[in-house]
Automatic annotation (TrEMBL):
Homodimer. The monomeric form is inactive while the homodimer is active. This is Carboxypeptidase Q. Residues 83-110 form a coiled coil. Keywords: Carboxypeptidase, Coiled coil, Endoplasmic reticulum, Glycoprotein, Golgi apparatus, Hydrolase, Lysosome, Metal-binding, Metalloprotease, Protease, RNA-binding, Secreted, Signal, Zinc, Zymogen. Residues 132-180, 211-237, 334-423, 459-537 are annotated as: Disordered. GO terms for molecular function: carboxypeptidase activity; metal ion binding; metallodipeptidase activity; RNA binding. The keyword Transmembrane does not apply. It comes from Anopheles dirus. It is found in: Endoplasmic reticulum; Golgi apparatus; Lysosome; Secreted. One of its GO terms (cellular component) is extracellular space. Residues 465-474 have a biased composition (Acidic residues).
Length: 1034
């Protein structure tokens, strides 16, 4: 196979890479023809991106292999993005030219009329027949198109066809350098065994082609037989004769109209005014025209609408359309000014008199004369009439004839447009004697703002106007008899709303009457200090507000608005709201509208991550992480390498402030582990040592078994019966929270009564013979003994045998050993907010460490990945909220929340200002259902509305109270609001802390949905105009 040139695009090139380095990487796949490295600036983050083009000469099958290998191998710590480059403009132009040349050569080689040098034309033995031609008369005024373009030699006889013998006897033409005759023989073609067969039928010439004629005419003529060609010649000659006659008539008319006849002897008569006495015959204007009079008498009369001045104007308008019958005009097309003046009625005269009177008054006021020009007024133009009592009776008289006219036209009202209906032509305005322009408020405040942009205030101000709140006069939404238009979010009518408000006020009155007097006074005082909004309508339809002034202590001046606050400003704009007496939320309408306004953004995030360009990327990132580093137990090299990998990838994703923060974590190493039932029979007992457990002496221990179901049952057993034995705890699964205490406390409880080891049923509701591990804790005042988890099946079997009274012995050997604590790191990346950079931060998190069995894909690789990728996806979509979103991948979570504790200590000085909300996902990333929540009642009301936005994911469930998450419990237990992922994790503990925690548990589609939910919820919380309410305790 030949070598071809292939142009490849190379993206994600590390900065500083030279062409020689890039050439060295691609040289293994073929010959490098050309390398070009370019840079461009990313408009989203102003980062400089490097890319290039490599032209490689190699075989076709090598290119896909090259692309695939670069996707799997790193270059300078990153994966190059290699793909086939799009064809440039110059290359496309060059390719098209080459293809055109090749096509031209191919067409030239197939040209049947082209003479080759190798083959010479053999002289024809006998003269070929010549096509007959038509004779031409002397009186022909024009020649055919063929005669014009194709000169022919004169024939011996013009009035007869040339015969074959005559042509042969004529003088032979002079030989030319190129043959002008191409012969075609009769041939037959057919397909035989898939091949084209061409067989000549006769040796006679089937067709003669004259190359002296143009190719187009040859192609037309070759389909005509001899007789058909003669007929075609006759048809063309007839058409030319008709055309010649038409041209001569046209020229004669033109000259006659110009007054200059070409032939003085011949003239055209247009009328009968000329003298016919000479007996000269008139020349007919058109052929076939009868010279005799046909008796036609013209009756030319004007239509009535064309008479008079109006008719003249209609005629002028009609002629503008060149007498087109489709445009017939009548009096309806005349404008008001074109019509003849009509006699004025009494009312019109009164109106004109009133108008002149008004103009006179206006002239006296302005001191300038005003010319009363004639105006054309439309009947729909309404003018304000000045009220004059002296003219009142006269107008009443003038109204009487109109009433009679209205009665006559009552039947035609249905045909009138809605705009034609009006109550009266006159309007009267009455100005109250007490009318005055209000001045500024008595007490001016120091602040300046546009009140309607701020919403409600936390406290009332002294400038608050009193509002009439009677049942009949109080309207929050719309004034009585007002033309103002409002857009309502619900479909309820105005009457329904008012009736609902009236019922609510009645209910509030009844509740208030049933309350004690002291409580009622307190509520009344609180209501008097409540801000009623930026303004209101009175029952007369007048809008009232403290229009431009706010008191200096108004809470609306403290929060962010339109980006006025600078970086580092405290985000403390929180409205005071909460729940009503019946437990329902009472959020301001402005806040509800703001939250619901995020629905389009949430929809965009969901579509991009679940169905768009980011679909499947979350699962791919998680698979790459766990496949590369495997299990990531605290203190191990795998965990620290995974942390370095995450930091590098976060930087590549364009996240900001990417760094790590140290945390000291325990270090425990699992060694050889074995358990075997030796009496009454031998059976292997799979087990996993628990975190921080010590090992057995060398060679292990053999001891008798004591099996119990619960701590309560064990406490009833005397210490003498326990001493020197291996205690087996086989509790019944209730829930993880209730059952996990046996794993964490079994060793200490058994050691207090002298046991030499403890074995615990795996903390899982379902088992297929696989043990589950986890962390356990020794109490300070007890002797440390080995402890491990065995399978559910073996624990239940040992309990049954013990209760039957059977004596059992187990050989237990464990080489597990605790090590000195080591320093690990929390991995951190940010999407910096537009308004608040270092304060009011929204945290999204999951832990990166795992246990040493399985690969930790479910616990908690999925939670860590969706927290990290939430920032990546928002960055890629150009969505940057007001507040900073900080992704934290905790370390040392499995051993006891060490990463979270270290981070809390490092940030405790300004934590109330620094943190706004905490997210943590550590309970699986199966199909999402909604969000768990922990926080006060105000924050709960806000977060409930945010969860409703997740309807596109069918994840609107809301549960509270919860712990929020293990690592963030350092903050949520002290009043910070937080949330965790609520998902369909019924099978989570089937794989928890076991070898089954692998990528097989994770579903790509569900992981995308979790990432979309996590991203959308974090964005909305971070972008709200208010901070989430919190009651922080030290």
């Amino acid at each position: 196979m030949g070598l071809k040139s292939h142009r490849l695009f190379v993206g994600n090139i590390p900065a500083g890479t030279s062409e020689s380095e890039l050439s060295a990487e691609f040289r293994a796949y073929g010959t490098i023809e050309f390398i070009e490295i370019k840079t461009k600036t990313n408009p989203l983050n102003d980062a400089v991106e490097t890319f290039g083009f490599v032209t490689l000469q190699t075989e076709d099958y090598v290119v896909p292999q090259c692309i695939k290998e670069f996707q799997q191998e790193q270059f300078k710590g990153v994966y190059l993005s290699v793909s086939r480059a799009k064809e440039s403009f110059l290359e496309k132009l060059k390719r098209e030219r080459e293809e055109a040349e090749a096509q031209k050569k191919s067409a030239s080689s197939l040209d049947p009329y082209k003479k080759t040098e190798e083959k010479k034309c053999v002289e024809v033995e006998k003269t070929l027949p010549v096509l007959p031609t038509l004779s031409k008369g002397d009186d022909s005024s024009s020649e055919s198109s063929e005669s014009d373009s194709e000169p022919e030699e004169p024939t011996p006889n013009k009035n007869a066809y040339t015969s074959y013998e005559g042509a042969a006897a004529s003088k032979a033409p002079k030989p030319k350098p190129e043959d002008e005759i191409v012969k075609k023989w009769n041939q037959e073609t057919y397909i035989e065994y898939g091949k084209l067969k061409i067989v000549p039928i006769t040796g006679k010439v089937a067709e003669v082609i004259d190359r002296t004629k143009p190719h187009q005419k040859r192609s037309q003529e070759k389909h005509l037989g001899e007789n058909a060609r003669i007929a075609d010649e006759k048809r063309k000659q007839g058409l030319n004769n008709l055309k010649s006659t038409y041209e001569s008539q046209k020229l004669a008319i033109k000259n006659a109209l110009a007054g200059d006849s070409l032939n003085k002897k011949k003239k055209i008569t247009f009328d009968d005014y000329e003298d016919d006495s000479a007996g000269n015959q008139k020349l007919s204007l058109f052929d076939g025209q009868d010279e005799d009079d046909d008796g036609f008498v013209g009756n030319f009369t004007l239509r009535k609408q064309m008479l008079g001045e109006e008719g003249q104007k209609l005629y002028e308008m009609q002629t503008s359309f060149q007498a087109d019958n489709r445009f017939r005009l009548d009096a309806r097309f005349l404008e008001e000014g074109d019509k003849a003046a009509q006699p004025k009625t009494k009312q019109a005269k009164a109106t004109e008199k009133e108008r002149m009177k008004q103009l006179e008054i206006l002239s006296n006021v302005t001191g300038k004369p005003i010319i009363a020009e004639k105006r054309v007024e439309s009947k729909n133009n309404l003018q304000m009439q000045r009220f004059d009592p002296s003219q009142h009776k006269e107008t009443e008289k003038n109204d009487k004839p109109q009433q009679s006219v209205e009665k006559k036209t009552e039947s035609k009202k249905a045909e009138r447009r809605e705009d034609d209906f009006k109550v009266s032509e006159q309007k009267f305005y009455k100005v109250s004697d007490g009318f005055s322009i209000s001045s500024a408020p008595k007490v001016q405040s120091e602040g300046f703002s546009l009140l309607s942009l701020f919403g409600r205030a936390n406290a009332s101000n002294g400038d608050q106007m009193d509002v009439d709140e009677t049942e009949e006069a109080y309207y929050e939404d719309k004034p009585l008899k007002s033309d103002a238009r409002f857009q309502y979010e619900s479909s309820d009518s105005e009457d329904d709303k008012q009736s609902k408000k009236k019922k609510k006020r009645d209910l509030d009155k009844k509740k208030s009457a049933a309350e004690p007097e002291g409580k009622r006074k307190a509520k009344s005082q609180a209501k008097s200090t409540e801000q009623k909004g930026p303004g209101y309508y009175t029952k007369q339809g007048i809008w009232k507000e403290n229009f431009f002034f706010l008191p200096s202590n108004d809470g609306r001046l403290e929060g962010p608005l339109f980006g006025w606050a600078s970086a580092g400003v405290t985000d403390n704009r929180v409205d005071t709201f909460g729940k009503r007496n019946d437990g329902s939320c009472d959020l301001p309408d402005s806040l509800l509208k703001e939250i619901h306004g995020y629905q389009p953004i949430v929809n965009k995030i969901v579509n991009k991550i679940v169905n768009g360009e980011f679909a499947g990327r979350t699962w791919d990132s998680l698979a790459e992480l766990v496949d590369t580093f495997g299990a990531r137990v605290a203190g191990s090299d795998q965990l620290e390498k995974a942390i370095d990998y995450v930091v590098t990838k976060m930087q590549a994703d364009g996240l900001e402030n990417v760094h790590t923060e140290n945390a000291t974590v325990p270090h425990w190493v699992r060694g050889y582990e074995s358990a075997e039932l030796v009496k009454p029979f031998r059976k292997n007992l799979p087990l996993l040592g628990l975190g921080s457990s010590i090992g057995t002496p060398r060679g292990g221990i053999i001891a008798e078994v004591l099996a119990v179901e619960s701590f309560k049952e064990f406490e009833a057993i005397a210490a003498e019966q326990v001493r020197g034995k291996i205690v087996v705890f086989s509790p019944v699964w209730e829930s993880y929270g209730r059952t996990v205490v046996y794993r964490s406390q079994a060793a200490s409880v058994a050691s207090r009564k002298g046991a030499v080891a403890a074995l615990v049923r795996s903390i899982t509701p379902f088992s297929i013979g696989s043990p589950h591990t986890g962390q356990q804790h020794y109490q300070d005042d007890v002797k440390k003994i080995p402890v491990a988890c065995i399978t559910v099946e073996d624990a239940q079997m040992l309990l049954r045998k013990y209760r039957r009274g059977e004596r059992m012995e187990i050989h237990l050997e464990m080489e597990d050993r605790p090590m000195e604590p080591v320093v690990s790191r929390n991995s951190i990346g940010e999407l910096v907010g537009t308004t608040f950079t270092n304060t009011s931060v929204v945290v999204v998190s999951g832990h990166l460490d795992s246990w040493d069995v399985g690969v930790g894909a479910m616990d908690d690789g999925g939670g860590a990945i969706i927290s990290w990728k939430a920032l990546t996806y928002l960055k890629a979509m150009g969505l940057r909220p007001r507040r900073t979103i900080r992704a934290i991948l905790w370390t040392g979570e499995e051993e006891g929340l060490y990463g979270g504790a270290a981070y809390k200590e490092a940030h405790k000085a300004q934590e109330e200002k620094e943190f706004n909300f905490f997210f943590e996902s550590d309970i699986g990333t199966f199909e999402p259902r909604g969000l768990d929540f922990v926080g006060n009642a105000d924050a709960e009301c806000v977060f409930r509305e945010i969860v409703k936005l997740m309807a596109p994911l069918n994840a609107t469930e809301f549960e509270t109270p919860t712990d929020g998450g293990p690592d963030i419990s350092h903050w949520t237990e002290r009043g910070f609001p937080g949330a965790s992922l609520l998902n369909k994790n019924e099978k989570y503990f089937w794989f928890h802390h076991s070898a089954g925690d692998s990528m097989a548990v994770e579903d790509p589609k569900n992981l995308d949905k979790c990432a979309a939910l996590w991203t959308a919820a974090a964005y909305v919380v971070a972008d709200l105009s208010i901070a989430m309410p919190k009651d922080v305790q030290p």
